[in-house]
Amino acid sequence: MNSLLRDLVNLYAALTIEFPQLKAVTLAQWLLESGRATSALAQDHYNFGGIKWREEMQPYATKVSYDASDGRGDYCDFGNLEDFIRGYWFFIDRPPYAGWRSHTATGQEFIEFIGPIYAPAPSTPSYAQKVLNLLSEAAGLLDDAPLGDDASDGPVVVSPPAGTAKSGVIVLDPGHGGTANVGGSSANNATSFSGILEKQMTLDLARRVQQALGDLAAAGGHDLKVFLTRSSDVNIGIQARARTAKAKNADLFLSLHFNAFNGQSSGTEAFIRSRPRNVNYDADLQFATRVQSAVLRSLRTHRPATRDRGVKVDTTSGPGGLGVLNDPDLGNTEGDARCRACLVETEFIDVKEVDDLLNRNPAAPAVRRDLALAIATALIDAL
Ligand SMILES: [Zn+2]
Fold this sequence. Notes:
Number of strands: 8
Bound molecules: zinc ion
Structural class: alpha/beta
Helix content: 40-55%
CATH architecture of the largest domain: 3-Layer(aba) Sandwich
């Protein structure tokens, strides 16, 4: 690998992008377009995508005339690697690619959508197939890239399109905490295969979601107020957690948990309160579905075997039930049920593969960062 390619890979691995599941496929596309960073466009102009000049690329590039294989033309000269990465995603967000955001579930779906627009000339194999042939190589390069001690502070690269600015109040509830049971909240529930406590993981995830919400708000012009029910290793009763939502006049309340059972069961699930005890059941169901599928999709990017356990309705009654989702405490009444709420059980951390994924592998911080970004994106979409 030449040093330019290594620099590109290391930077891209460390950056946060809006669709982390598309990192490998876009890198594969750049490997193809730049001959693994050997083309003159890449070497002289940081243009790994063969991106043609367009006036609207001015924030990221200047115009350069260049003899490409398909004739002399005007191309983008990016000043540095980061401008290229940001510029690529900006390029894709232009009108010719309209609709790409509905084709982001997998790298294959993405490249099969944008490929015929990016490279209109028919070829055998197709352009998308040529990119897909490089997908595992690209994924391997990203997996091997050093992440530093923790790349969670990397900037969000892709900005949502203009005109979609949202505003709202979000309360994140990291489950458990402290050393004693408080008001129906246990100090800890699940313990990972290697001994890491759920209460620690919920707080880490909540902080990362908060960070990602800040990044997305800055990039997309959103006006968000984000609160945590706890920001240190203390326990709070379930009623007090829900009442944070009421006190802050929250639009969304998300309780974050990790599961454990028998070391075998695994998967992602979310819970809402059952209908007679839930004045905004339908809205909660829609919200929980959005969050659960975002978590599932993010985890599957890294571990395709992640099971979909769906959204479940809590049928427990009494203090053992999901009191943290209790409408009167959240501030919801029949007449004004503004706060949508759900609880997500991210994964079963007593399963070794899940513990490796989230805690033990070198890439675990990046997996948690992607997960947080997926949750943050779902929360903003829900507003
Ligand atoms: Zn829990």
